[in-house]
Each structure stands twice: as C-alpha cells, then as structure tokens.
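Anyone? Bumping this.
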Amino acid sequence: MSSPVADAVLAPATGAMILAAFSLLWVWLGWWFGRRAKGLDGYMLAGRKVGLALGTATAMATWVTSNTTMAAPQLALQMGIWGMVGYSLGSVGLLLFAPLARRIRALMPGGYTSGDFVRLRYGKTAWRVFLGISLFYGLGWLVSLGMAGGVLIHALTGIDYRIGMSVILGICVLYTLLGGLRAVIGTDFIQTLIILFGLVLLAFLVLDRVGVADMHQAVLAERPQLLNLLFPAAIMFLFNNLLFGIGEIFHSNVWWSRAFAFREGVGFKAYALAGIFWTPVPIVAGFLALSVPALGLNVPAGDMVGPLVAAELLGAGGAALVFVLVFAALASSLDSLLAATSDLVLQDIYRGHLRPRASQAELAKAARLVVLGLGVLTWLLCLPRLTTLAELLYFTGAFVASTIWPIAAGLYWRRVNPTGATLAMLLGTGAGLAGYFLIGFYVAALISAAVSMTVLLLTTWLAPRDFAWRQLAAGQEVA
Amino acid sequence: MTLSIDGLTLLIYSALALTVLAPLVLIGLWFKDRNKDTLW
C-alpha cells in the first residue's frame, strides 16, 4: 500500500542514478572551471577577477543551504508566516556585508582571509581568539552540512546514511581539490539556477493546484495560529536568526574570501543583489507548507514537508526534482565552506604559525593537502552520525555574534583598541554561552552581540587608539 | 491579528516574482560579463 512518505521517497536505484549523474557533472565542471587556475591566487581566490554574475550567484548559492530548502517549510508549518519571513531575514547579513566587502577590497587588495584582517588590525592575541571562534564555527558548519547530506539523501532515496554522506562530501572535496575557488564559484552559478528554477516550478504547481484562497481558508480552519501576526515565539526566533546570520557572515572567511576574489567594484553590487534575490527564497520554499492543510496531507516529519508536497503534486518526478534541488543546495554550501576553511587553515595556521617563509609554490601544494585533510576530518566526524553535532550550529551563535562589532568597528573606526576587541569577543562569547544554557538557544546570539558591543564601546571610550589604515595593505603579505 | 488573504497573496506573489526575476538577471549579467569573467 502506498503512503505519502513512500511516494516522496525515490527508489534507491533511481536515487543512485541521479546522484551518480550529478556527481559526474559537478566533478567535470569543477575540473573545467579550474583548469586555467594559475598560482596560489588563482587557486585560492579565482585570480581575484570574479565578475558580477558569478559573484552574485556564489553569494546566493552559498547562503541557500539544505536548511533553506528543507527547514523553511518546516518552520512555516511550526511558526507560520513569521517562521518563513524570519528565515528570509537571513538576507540582512548579506545586505549589510555589501559595504563591508567594498571596504575590505579597498583596504586590503592583496589580502587572503578574514584572519589576515584581524591579525593586522588587532594583533596576535585577538587573531588567535578569532581563529578559535572561526575554525570552530567553520568545522561545526562543515560537519552539520555533511551530516545533513547523509540524512537527506537517506530520507529522499533510502540510500544508506554513510554512503550518501561519503558521496556528497567526496564529490565536493574532489572538485574543490581540482579547481579551487574557481571550481566552487563556477559550479555555484549552475547550482543557483537549478535551485531557483526548481523552486519556481514547485511554487507554480502549488498555486495552480491549490491556489492562495483555498490555502488561506484551509490554514485558517485547521491551524489559525500559522497566520497569527503576533506569534511571540516566532517573533523571538526572527530577531535571533537575524543576529546569528549577521554574525555568521561578518566573521566567516566564506564571505571574506569572496570579497577578495571579486573584481574591483563588484563586491558591493554582488552582495547587495545576492541579499535582494535571497530574501524571497525561504518564503517561496516555506509557503509550500501552507498548502498542507488544503492538500489534506499527513506530515509525519516536519523536514519532509517539501518532498511530500512535491510528490503529491508531481509523483515520482516531484521527488526527483526535490532531490536534485537539495543536492545542489548542499553542494553549493559545502564546497564554499570547504574552500574558505581550508584557506583559513593554510594562511593563518600553516603560513601564519608554522611556515611563515613558505614559498608560493609550497603554499599552492599545501593548499590541496589542506582541502583533502579537512575533507577527511569532516568525514570522520560525520561518520558516527551524532545528532548532537547537528545542534552545534545553534551553539555557535554565541561565538559568531561576538565578532560582529569587532569586525564592523574594526573596518570603519580607527579608535578601537586591540584589547577591547579581544575582550569583546571573549566576554561576548562567555555571556552568549551563559544565555544559551540558562535561558535558551534563541537568546545566545542576542546576548553575545549585546555584551560584545558594550565591551567594545566602553574600552574604546576609556582607551582610544589611533590606527593607520595603510598598515592593512602594507602588512598583508607578511604573516 | 490574522494575516488576510490579500496579505498572503501579496507576500507569496511578490516573493515568487523576485524568485523568477533572479535567474533572469543572473543570466543577463553573465551574458553581459561573459568576456570579462575569467572562469569561462
């Protein structure tokens, strides 16, 4: 007897065929895009000549994770309108990073990582604290994406968790290894188009089959709280998500490496456009869930809403479409994170701490070994499928939100002093963690950002220091 | 306070319009930029 969940799941053989076909496509494209990469700049930063189309697409694709496509409908089903609108406010981080990207490119035209900036702006103590936060977050996000890959492939096709996780991770490692950031950015462009066209197709089908009037009527009759504009838990989620997103983007090398890689004059426009075009994605993915009451679907697991609705409307073709879409969303984030975290390890740990005099050739060789090593480490951490690790990302909110003010103020305000920035990160993280354990995950980022800001303002007021911006450009080559 | 049917329609259709526009703009920008983008 067929059930809605069984219809939403592809046969393992079909799933394996789609997985194999797209894996080959990504690896071939990765090799093709990366074939002209020359030297360390070519491999790590795509030659610093990325244009507006590819720049916008890579920022969008990286921020559209498997969570955006799978968790947005779940949030809409749990928190209603504010769930999906709150999720879409994740775009504020991209929009606010637009002026920062322009400033970063202007101040450090030869920079490599966000770690470079913190080291040159605040000195070695702040740099090491920042590296601790950033690497912890980077690895946490990598592991959660690797695990999400295995879990989703299993849920959508029945393929074993370990096989699915190994394939998605292996594919991303392979094409990042072959083509560096050029491969990542090139594949991101294609993946963005797949995600957007897939979502639009699903949305049109829902509107054609159900329509807004029936959807509204059914939700109002069965789950009226989903249309409630004064849903307190959802409004709190909205603010925490906003700050978490800003913290993630401001500090992470994923976004800094792109600011360095974009051609001059591209950074601001690329991030602003990516922010504008990313905003509706969680709403389009999320509103599919509002059709559940009208379609009369029984949803046993929240994160299966998208596949269930697609299978109801399109049958096996819908399940295949969702699988391709989720695969593209996963790969586009996983490859970016892999490349950017590897850059941070290479530039700030290997070159910064172990081999300061390493030649460009040695670094180019080490870059590939770091990608491979990071891939293996992520695979090992994903292997036991510890569900607690999936919650690691909520936990990192306390860490990343403490970097918002040291980064933003450090880029624009000469008077911020290194001790203040270090204390802001340490005390902000400490307070955020206390909030996480004593109150709940939804206040961790909020408290961390508030304490960090207070410490930064207070220490700058008590002990202002002059900083010469030219030091950033002058020191970026020397670790 | 409940979101009206007009509010829901506006939210969904404006989000959808922007999502339709995004790939068209990306392809247009790529076409305009294709000789300058060193990846291709």
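Late reply, but here is one note on the structure posted above: Chain A touches chain B through 50 residues (CB under 8 Å).
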